[in-house]
Amino acid sequence: MLSAKSLFQEILAHDESFRLFCSIAASGESQGGWENARIAALVPESERALAPKITRHGADEDKHGRIFNALLKKRGLEPVEVPPETDYTMLLERHGIGLAHEKLKADQPLTVPDIITYLAHSRVTEQRAAEQMQMLRKYFSDHPDVGRAVRMISNDEDNHLAYAHEELLRFARAGHGRLIQGTLRECALAEIRVYRDVSLAVMAHMGRVLGWPRAKSAALAAGIHAVYLYERLGGWRRMVSLRMPERRDALGGPASAAPEFA
């Protein structure tokens, strides 16, 4: 039976598919770490109190990248080059979502609207990340190789999502509600397209590595398109709602250390 659990079990059991999976994940997390570090350095003076939380966000993303690379090392594998069509983070940037890297590479302070753009991008993408990690946690929390990593990353992603909710609500109370909602909607509608395209690309690569029959690849592609249709017809709205999280000040402390994978 074709299910999310059986699909990931197959990917985790095969060295080359596991290698590709961890390489894609590590690359995206490391890129997110760099982006957050640059944003923290360029926070406007009026929002300097937010800088430590942005720094913590980036440190968590860097940690996740190290975790995926450590999982590869544990199995005696080296990272592979990430196919550009599977690079979720860079494709979002090319679609104009989030802050452009040209802006982040400059030394000009960001503005409050820039920070709102960053937080809206985080609200949407961390929703996706939290959902994916919750699914992996459901099936692989006790897995001998990836269980600890899944639990730690899932907890971090929940923290990131809570932080984005709380900070956006703070800006909404300060009078930026219309900008926040417009930015969230634009980001969500772009993200669901990028996620569909990246998912199709990743599954195509996995299919070649694992030798999937054409019928299996077609069924997975149909499932990806069905998810996109659901999200396009209204599922995207879960990515733009705001509510005060149960986890308050979720990024108020230092990042936890990455576990050792001997």
Task: Chart the SSEs and their pairings.
Blueprint: H1 4-13, H2 15-42, H3 51-74, H4 88-94, H5 101-105, H6 112-140, H7 147-210, H8 214-233
Describe the protein.
Helices cover 71% and strands 0% of the residues. The chain has 262 residues and is mainly α.
N/C terminus separation: 34 Å
Fraction of residues in β-strands: under 5%
Oligomer: single chain
Low-pLDDT segments: none
Notable characteristics:
8 helices; globular; about 260 residues; about 70% helix
How would you sum up this structure in a few lines?
The protein is built from eight helices and no strands.
